[in-house]
């Protein structure tokens, strides 16, 4: 604690200290204490755009989504499919600059919870089903954001993996799965990027609310990981302010009534709460406030640059799932589907951004190809008949050599505060797609969603492009890919299961309204499908492009002590510039404990011009080989032989190389 903070703390009354530990009445700031010159710092959502709300007098009435225009980047589920950590870092930096320009000190994000089931209603706000990928993306996002003087709020700590009864559900996870999967990305980001704030989740973990859970907030986060920043509660997640403070929750958000601060005062006066605990939180908060005020900078709100960078990210993130040569589109075609005209660019809930400028795929395709015929197909409004729309679309489909069909989810199906019921597209879209594939043999499906879809008519489709939730410039990015200006280079960050019941949580998910037990342990996502050889629609890490890459001479060097380097020569054999994601997984067949067949431990994305060759080096350290030993209560390294899988995706090996640890 520095001298300035010590002095301030001494001057504060008990009431002032307690009041600082609860947000300001405005909902989106800490409480200022003018008597002592303690200013307020502001905080707004996050995580893919700055949702700075307008005051009642500025907009057309106070409403949660009445915010200043800002760049709406693709959803985190989408940018994670870029596997491009530098680009995600750049997104973080631009978000930080826009936050400063809009007077925001803390941006509430990123969400880095593990995707345990594809039903998770907020999966669009999270990165991935792999803690290593999530951790790396999280580190770059936070570093980029915080380099601008804006703080992040890493959320939702902890085990907020679904929305089902999120305000009360009690989550049980075995210690090994906690350490290797659910805590892993948090640990990486906390230790490597030092987020200035962490947001505690709504749910319970091991019987107590995360915002009141001492083991989580103090024992693991603050003591074991050495976290020195501020813990902020999720909005309304505190039930007992005294208990939460004792557990390590420094700031309760938002302000609800006077009672919260008053309960802290009473607890100190009655000897139930040690004032030193209150002082510790107040000092941490004062440090944050001083630091954020000092680091305020004058940035111009540059929405044009934001739009352009969001476009680049959307283009890097779209995943080409299937292509029988239909893409890039070089024939006459028509466009079918309302989502081509009114795209879904982001998920629903608190992360909603008021985008700066949104175009539509239809407009962007017409800019490139001229007058493309269009039929809405589904989404009938009052007065329109669904059947008439579908018939119009089918007769248009018969009249052209190819159809670009737009499908996807809506805000009701995929939103904060509720999980999905299944992985299907809306029934009217499925019915229409069946009609269209019967009418035309060359159908290309473009999907807009923040999570996994069971793709209907898959074998009858000539190409499938998963565009995710592409943000405000997703339409321009999509047109660049469809027309062949850019080769798609996204890779799945979540497995596309063949059917929902293949997911390892299927038997346990939402069976009990009170609690959920993660009984599949570490065998989550691809760790389960790959180890148990469950056939999936598209595996983790999967994605096609318009060129082929040739891998030659993979070699592992080092291995003596700490670090190993896998190097490989990669050539872009195609005629256009393209990007490849090089993936390295590790397994240990003869392990004395059960382990997934392979786990992602290193990756990189490289850009190669047509015919260009590069040497790629991926570094691994011994830490990546460890597993969590529940008896020893620590990560341990087994000696012996490991397999290093140099892969296109988790299922497709290019080479398997042995590695021995002596
Ligand atoms: C969400 C948080 C969000 C907060 C403020 C909560 O309901 O869970 O992610 O940051 O609201 O809008």
Task: Quickly list its features.
binds beta-D-glucopyranose; 6-stranded mixed sheet; 17 helices; 28% helix; globular; single chain; alpha/beta; 5-stranded parallel sheet
> Taking all residues together, what is the mean pLDDT?
96
Structural class: alpha/beta
Kindly report how far apart the N and C termini lie. 45 Å
What's the tally of helices?
17
Strand elements, count: 26
Q: Biggest sheet, in brief?
A: 6 strands, mixed
Radius of gyration: 25 Å
Read across the widest sheet, the strand sequence of neighbours is 9-14-13-12-10-11
Low-confidence stretches: none
List ligands, each type once.
beta-D-glucopyranose
Shape: globular
Helix content: 25-40%
What proportion strand? 15-25%
Describe what this molecule looks like in 3D:
With 662 residues, this protein is α/β, with parallel strands linked by helices. The protein has 17 helices and 26 strands. The strands form 7 sheets. A 6-stranded mixed β-sheet has the order 9-14-13-12-10-11, covered by helices on one side. It has a 5-stranded parallel β-sheet with strand order 1-2-3-5-8. 55% of the residues are buried. Bound molecules: beta-D-glucopyranose. The site of beta-D-glucopyranose has 7 residues, from loops.
A few lines on this structure:
This protein has 662 residues and is α/β, with parallel strands linked by helices. Helix 2 (14-20) crosses helix 10, helix 5 (131-146) packs parallel to helix 7 (184-193) and helix 14 (386-398) runs parallel beside helix 15 (427-439). The longest helix is centred in the middle third of the chain and has 20 residues, at 275-294.
